[in-house]
Specification:
By secondary structure, the chain is of the alpha/beta class. Helix content is 46%, strand content 10%. The protein has a 6-stranded mixed beta sheet with strand order 1-2-13-12-10-11, with helices on both faces. The longest helix is centred in the middle third of the chain and has 28 residues. It is globular, with a radius of gyration of 26 Å. 43% of the residues are buried. The N terminus is likely disordered. Bound molecules: glucose-6-phosphate. Glucose-6-phosphate (G6Q) binds next to loops.
Length: 563
Amino acid sequence: MTISSRRPVGTVQPDREQPGKSPLRSRPAWALLAQHFQRLKDVQLRQLFANDPARGERLVAEAAGVYLDYSKNRITDETLTLLVQLARECDLEDHIAAMFRGDKINVSENRAVLHVALRAPRDARIMHDGRNVVPDVHAVLDKMADFTARLRGGEWKGRTGKRIRNIINIGIGGSDLGPVMAYEALRHYSDRTMTFRFVSNVDGTDFAEAVRDLDPGETLFIVSSKTFTTLETMSNAHTARAWLLTSLKDESAIAKHFVAVSTNAQEVARFGIDTANMFGFWDWVGGRYSMDSAIGLSTMLAIGPDNFRAMLGGFHAMDEHFRSAPLERNLPALMGLLGVWYTDFFDAQTVAVLPYEQYLKRFPAYLQQLTMESNGKHVTTDGVRVDYDTGPIYWGEPGTNGQHSFYQLIHQGTRLIPCDFIAFARTLNPLGRHHDMLLANVFAQTEALAFGKTAEEVRAEGTPEWLVPHRLFEGNRPSNTLLLDALTPVALGTLVALYEHIVFTQGTIWQIDSFDQWGVELGKALAQKIIPQLESASEPKLEHDSSTNALIRRYRKSKRPEG
Ligand code: G6Q
């Protein structure tokens, strides 16, 4: 058995077959891809490599310091031609131009999507509602740099005159995952005399563990919240305030120990933070696209303004590549289209992201929000239900750890899991043979996945016949390999921008709004209704379903044990 689509073409469920096909499925390239898929679905990578000895050097692309080897994908030149044709039929190039132009492409929220302006050089011009936003961006960056210099230089002191040594970022979702990931990724460049922690969960344990060994007099909280109304963040911020005041006892300490990153000056002031200590951003920056805005203040405090600006340079280099390179050589476009190929024709449900770099241990978690909150949508921008699959599930862990855990399923399971391997030619911590061993594993895994091991090869090793099926590797498992020089701030910027634009490419093909997130609203609203039902002294009148009602009753009973 070889891995191929369990459904003949695309992923259309019978009950979703509508009399009129969606615009995407009506595109000429879609129909051609569907036919092409039938011809290619059982073709082996072994065959493709044997037919073209130069394939591994030909199916590569390079930009902004990122070398992409996409030769181990289940594609031919014809596949690429058709995928690029599909992108053109979906006006990808025009959509890219529209984003950079500041058009309101986040249609359901009627907003521009201008995270590319966050890393534009000082002399660039990017207009939003008739105003060039680039000077605004740089004014905030300068303010962040000034604050960072004062804090790291010891000029900014706590209320009791002590130097600030601990930074705690309080935020959630887009106001947390980017800062955490970037701090871990760039730890090598960070000020090791300082401690950085991140509190996101409304679970009190998160806050309690973050502060348990810290001196409030040496601690600064960054309250990061675009809206400054998010339940988790505001609860943690109020708890932080109380923790600080228990020890410093003086309301005036707030000004020295709290700063805010937000678009909502009114709420920041209401919380008691001096708006002079607020770092702003704009409604045209989505939360999950904001790690390079003021939301990255903790990153800048950790690695310093120069490294932060270098990271922005990496983002910008990838932006420019995405904006200007022809689709045939455009890394985010190619990777995005390959994702569409597997999602919609091979019926792949997930993508594994496997960084062979310990510092990128939070990168898969970061990508989960970026990709799944962006492209986990079931209606088009026109509000019509799609008749094809959209965003796949992203997951992953750093190598080599994953190899001793879930790789078994990728190699020998029944599901097709396209993988992105991410590796760096140089390590930041050279230790004997470690790096050669690490990289040998990257190359070995992509080779094993693609080419497997045939029954003949297994038999030739003297394997008894009954064991042959167990030791057989079918191969034909696709992967991309991203090879960069070293994990510098620049490299991190290019990598994040690469995935941002992969998401954009796919969202454009699928005609969905990659920049809203209505799917998180319902649970939030229900929780607000349930909180008083858990807290009320008298038995509340419950009007949920029987399951939810019973769970609430049981919780109320258990949290106040008799006697
Ligand atoms: C990201 C989402 C979401 C958001 C959080 C935090 O794109 O919008 O994850 O970042 O809900 O929101 P605030 O920054 O407003 O607290």
